[in-house]
Design brief:
This protein is of the alpha/beta class and 298 residues long. It contains 10 helices and 7 strands. The protein has a single domain, classed as Rossmann fold (3-Layer(aba) Sandwich). The chain binds magnesium ion.
């Protein structure tokens, strides 16, 4: 009986996370109708951001300046509609404000802006923010804090040499309070990553740079529970999570397509995309398990 109750609790929890992620995806799609946005990259990390803000990060709208808070930095800044959608879902800002996307009278824009509650750092110019995370992580260590710094990187972003310079520094400073999450959706702009600059085997590369690394399905809340509750993976080492995701996840007509990285949708197209999102959701089972591959390490 106790085991059955525990399973039911997990099912309810994952169902709640899935519903939250669904509302975030709806917001992202609506923003694509307000002048366009990088829809595919936003949808690939929507589940990760939903999980982190809903189930892991020690931060809430009332503790934005608390030095003991966890930090999340979205280095792949073009996916900011997913971040704004999650911040609205979690009460950091009014959801109605998302309707101001690209308005001259607001800073809800194509890249993260610190003027928006919950955004820790400006980003968009790729390859820089892991170094920002290192600075925050060192400051936390110097103050004797126990909080963590999470940096979400795009896989295409890993072509920036500054990322690997930062990896060397993070390992040499033994920053086990630093976590890099790689949104491994297999694309950068309108090209598959492996057709431009080969990244695989990715986990082994981070390990060679002195990081402890794990790999998950970036759409499985169950696997997120497993891996993020195991942080840090090794004392004295920064942690990297390779999250295998699908670009455009949740909307079949957008999924895994090179030509759907930026979408400027009409009102009619927005309605169709949201309808497709719900239709696909009703046909799917589980916690939006990723179709690309079964990552069973977690
Ligand atoms: Mg990518």
């Amino acid at each position: 009986m106790e085991t059955e109750l525990r399973i039911e609790a997990y099912v309810d929890r994952y169902s709640d996370l899935k519903q939250r992620a669904m509302r975030v995806r709806e917001q992202v799609i609506r923003m694509s109708g307000k002048g366009g946005c990088f829809l595919g990259a936003s949808l690939s990390c929507a589940d990760l951001l939903t999980y982190l803000y809903s189930a892991l990060l020690r931060i809430d709208p009332e503790s934005l300046d608390d030095p003991a808070r966890d930090y999340l930095l979205l280095s792949k800044g073009h996916a900011v509609p997913a971040l704004y959608g999650v911040l609205a879902e979690c009460g950091f800002l009014q959801a109605s404000r998302l309707e101001n996307h690209l308005s001259l009278h607001d800073c809800i824009y194509w890249h993260p802006n610190r003027s928006v509650p919950g955004v820790e750092f400006h980003s968009g110019s790729l390859g820089h923010v892991l170094s920002v995370g290192i600075g925050i992580a060192i400051d936390i260590k110097l103050r004797g804090g126990r909080n963590k710094v999470f940096v979400i990187l795009g896989d295409g972003e890993l072509n920036e040499g500054s990322i690997w310079e930062a990896c060397l520094v993070a390992a040499s400073r033994k920053l086990d309070n630093l976590v890099a999450i790689i949104d491994r959706n297999g694309f950068q702009a309108n090209v598959r990553t492996e057709d431009l600059v080969t990244l695989d085997p990715l986990a082994e590369k981070f390990e060679a740079f002195g990081w402890a690394c794990g790999e998950i399905d970036g759409h499985s809340f169950r696997q997120m529970d497993g891996i993020f509750n195991a942080l840090p993976f090794a004392a004295g080492q920064p942690s990297a999570v390779v999250a295998n995701t699908v670009r455009g996840k949740g909307v079949p007509s957008l999924q895994d397509r090179a030509d759907r990285w930026f979408v400027d949708a009409t009102d009619e197209q927005v309605a169709l995309l949201i309808a497709e999102l719900h239709e696909f959701d009703e046909a799917s089972v589980g916690d939006m398990a990723c179709s690309r591959q079964d990552q069973s390490r977690w």
